Amino acid sequence: MHSGFQVPLPNHSAIIPFNSFQEEEEEEEEEEEEEEEKKKKKKKKKKKKKKKKKKKKKKKKKKKKSISQ
Q: Is the pTM of this model over 0.90?
């Protein structure tokens, strides 16, 4: 061996058991699912807002027609 080159010994804390990788993947999947649910909820809210706006516009049009007659 060369005297100028040292190989660092692995720390026991650095050795990760296989189970922890599975847990990380599961957590990531859960986070992704939560994000998708949030996006779906936002879309639903937007649709509801659009429907409300349409209803308000219709009411205004009806009022204008009744006033003009």
A: no
